[in-house]
Automatic annotation (TrEMBL), chain A:
One of its GO terms (biological process) is tRNA (guanine-N7)-methylation. This is tRNA (guanine-N(7)-)-methyltransferase non-catalytic subunit. It is found in: Nucleus. InterPro entries: Trm82, WD40/YVTN_repeat-like_dom_sf, WD40_repeat_CS, WD40_repeat_dom_sf, WD40_rpt. PANTHER family: TRNA (GUANINE-N(7)-)-METHYLTRANSFERASE NON-CATALYTIC SUBUNIT WDR4, WD40 REPEAT PROTEIN 4. It comes from Arachis hypogaea.
TrEMBL record, chain B:
One of its GO terms (cellular component) is nucleus. Gene3D superfamilies: Vaccinia Virus protein VP39 (3.40.50.150). SUPFAM superfamilies: S-adenosyl-L-methionine-dependent methyltransferases. It is found in: Nucleus. It is an enzyme of class 2 (transferase). PROSITE patterns: SAM_MT_TRMB. This is tRNA (guanine-N(7)-)-methyltransferase.
Length: 429, 255
């Protein structure tokens, strides 16, 4: 919507460049780890023990503006990156070549890959979800440019999260108006997905993240969602029924310490299901660490299992990724660029291992993480992070997450001067 | 805004609200956050507030009786008032974005309820943005009729995506309509009429009613005659373009 563009303009006019939070994604078999900071896409190949070199001869090479969404396909063959430069790039994870570049009319806020790896979906800032056919793309086969077709839309609402259900039957889209829409993903998605299965309604603020708890008894999976209302909720997607609500910020003791919490100060910013989904890692805007929730599938409830704090640094994760193969939770914090500072885009990666119902989670030191120093150098940009740069980044991260998820409230006082850019006003002037 | 007493805005002779005090522009910005309350989910919708005689206390809404007709963009309420007596056993609601116009309809219904005891208890109005929040008010397959009378044409091509009938929004309307439920649209703008008809024709979950079915439906005649907008068009000798479609179960579920 022109709104989003106007927002960005207003921000840059005030010398307040919009910052994009750092993202992390882990290959399902922990073959590689990818971090996106601003327009940089950094991939470390854990098997080879070195940085993967990305090859992009597909359209305009690499991303020019901050990347807003990355993910691996569940089969591990494809990787997608998309963002503010209005392009969606699809990469083969074998060769790390870009096999396809898709142009979007508007900036992209979320991406998802279908379970069979045949379709890539992305959401733009108008609230439209597009789909592109990528069947047959792998290895060195390049598809070139593909045109996307519209799949569905949330009217004038930004979609921060797109997910496919584990059985591939449904595509889920969550929006800033607190709604989660569950739509049947048809065999021929290029004609649009018109049959809505249900709406999962219950959140009172924007929904920022979605993930599935895989359970043998429930093949289509139980949905967990995180929101600006500081809760994580559990849903049955066939009926849209709300099964349980977990007040994570309250339960993790965050609300007591902060007497005058700013609005949305305890928003859930990301969540990630782990070991067959029974433990869910939750990142909260105000928490230096993560909360682990456990899901009781038969009782259909959520409860707080542990709060894991990251000692020693002001680490508020902006994005989480889990590697089922090794039971490790990967976290990143960082921002695209720091306003009024000369620091380059900054990212800090930490790993928690022993994510288990029985064991105590262990925050790994820099020398203990898979890939070690070489990985940190690749993904962070440097093996060690400058303290002051890091603190500045931590502040910027707060701003970034707030701006990303909350609709900007314009002050009433300079409304007239802002209207000067309107076409119908220009003639009068 | 001048302070007008509520009583002065109601005509002394008819007991009905006088439109003069509820004037509003025809257009309203659906994107401005007017901060009207929206139910978190359909189960949170307060039936006792809107239909107090039928649901005396908020505990009474056990889910057995639900709203079945929705007039999207109901304006000054002309259609709803006619439907209320035509279908006295059916619960119906109007959705309107403009504050003053919603107030007018509220006053009109209240006055009619007082003047006609027992009648008009099945109709109400709510101020909301139906392009964003329809799933918050209605459950899956709840409605049997939806009305879109003289919607905003949004003439400029870049604004076509803001039209209330669009391929995307039809997904949501199909969701809240029961199979067999009917969607009624009418406009005096030919281009918009063509647009709405083609959106409906191209949507896999809607099929057109036949001529015979249109003749047999008593509601169809109300489309052009019951509303203030429709009466204005008739007065000016304008043409209207209607598209009436039925919500169907797509036969080919696998495509």
């Amino acid at each position: 919507m022109e709104e989003a563009e106007a927002e960005a303009e207003v921000e840059s006019n005030r010398d307040n460049v919009e910052v994009a939070p750092a993202l992390i994604a882990v290959h399902p078999e922990q073959i590689s780890v990818a971090v996106a900071v601003g327009p940089d896409l950094r991939v470390f190949d854990l098997l080879a023990g070195s940085a993967a070199s990305l090859v992009d001869e597909c359209g305009a090479p690499f991303h020019k503006d901050p990347i807003r969404a990355i993910r691996f396909g569940s089969r591990g063959k494809l990787f997608v990156s998309a963002g503010d430069d209005k392009t969606v790039k699809i990469w083969s994870t074998e060769s790390w070549r870009c096999v396809c570049t898709v142009s979007s009319e508007k900036r992209v806020s979320a991406v998802a890959i279908s379970e069979d790896g045949c379709h890539v979906c992305f959401a733009d800032k108008f609230g439209v979800v597009w789909v592109v056919d990528v069947a047959g793309s792998h290895g060195h086969v390049t598809l070139g440019d593909r045109k996307p077709t519209p799949l569905l839309s949330h009217y004038c609402s930004i979609i921060p999260s797109l997910e496919f259900s584990p059985d591939g039957r449904f595509i889920l889209s969550a929006d800033r108006d607190s709604k989660i829409r569950v739509t049947n993903f048809p065999k021929k998605p290029l004609n649009g997905a018109h049959e809505i299965q249900s709406f999962c309604l219950g959140h009172t603020e924007f929904v920022s993240c979605l993930a599935f708890v895989h359970a043998r008894e429930c093949p289509q999976g139980l949905l967990v969602s995180g929101s600006g209302d500081s809760t994580v909720r559990l849903w049955d997607i066939s009926s849209g029924a709300l099964l349980d609500t977990c007040e994570v910020a309250a339960k993790a003791g965050l609300l007591e310490s902060n007497g005058e919490a700013e609005e949305h100060g305890h928003a859930v910013t990301d969540l990630c299901t782990t070991i067959s989904g029974l433990l869910i890692a939750v990142a909260i805007q105000s928490l230096q660490g993560i909360v682990l929730l456990s899901c009781d599938v038969s009782a259909q409830t959520l409860s707080v299992s542990k709060v894991v704090s990251i000692a020693g640094e002001a680490f508020v994760p902006t994005c989480l990724g889990f590697s089922p193969a090794e039971g490790k939770l990967w976290m990143v914090t960082g921002v695209s660029s720091l306003p009024a500072c000369n620091y380059p885009p900054l990212a800090r990666v930490r790993v928690i291992s022993a994510i288990d119902a029985e064991q105590e989670p262990v925050v790994l030191g820099d020398d203990e993480i898979p890939g070690g120093e070489k990985l940190l150098e690749t993904l962070q940009g440097s093996a060690s992070v400058d303290e002051s740069a890091f603190l500045a980044a931590a502040e910027a991260v707060k701003t970034a997450m707030r701006n990303l998820l909350i609709k900007k409230q314009y002050p009433a006082d300079n409304r007239e001067s802002r209207k000067k850019t309107r076409n119908d006003r220009k003639l009068k002037m | 805004m001048p302070e007008t007493e509520v009583k002065a805005t109601i005509s002394k002779s008819t007991g009905l609200p006088r439109k003069r005090f509820y004037r509003a522009r025809a257009h309203s910005n659906p994107l401005s956050d007017s901060h009207f309350p929206v139910p978190i989910s359909p189960s949170q919708f307060d039936y006792s507030l809107h239909y107090p005689q039928i649901f005396p206390s908020s505990d009474q809404a056990d889910g057995s009786r639900k709203i079945q007709f929705a007039d999207i963009g109901c304006g000054f309420g002309g259609l709803l008032i006619s439907l209320s007596t035509l279908f006295p056993e059916t619960l119906m609601i109007g959705m309107e974005l403009r504050d003053k116009v919603t107030e007018y309809v509220k006053e009109r219904i209240l006055s009619l309820r007082v003047a006609n005891p027992g009648q008009y208890q099945n109709v109400s109005v709510v101020r909301t943005n139906s392009m964003k929040y329809i799933p918050n008010y209605f459950e899956k397959a709840q409605l049997t009729k939806m009305f879109f009378l003289f919607p905003d044409p949004h003439f400029k091509e870049k604004n076509h995506r803001r039209r209330v009938i669009s391929p995307f929004l039809l997904d949501e309307y199909a969701y809240v309509l029961k199979a067999g439920g009917i969607i009624y649209t009418i406009t005096d703008v030919e281009e918009l009429g063509d647009w709405m008809k083609s959106c409906l024709e191209n949507h896999p979950m809607f099929e057109a009613l036949t001529e015979k079915e249109l003749e047999a439906d008593p509601v169809v005649k109300l489309l052009s005659s019951a509303t203030e907008e429709g009466q204005k068009v008739a007065r000016n000798g304008g043409q209207t373009f209607q598209a009436v479609f039925r919500r169907i179960v797509p036969s080919d579920k696998t495509s």
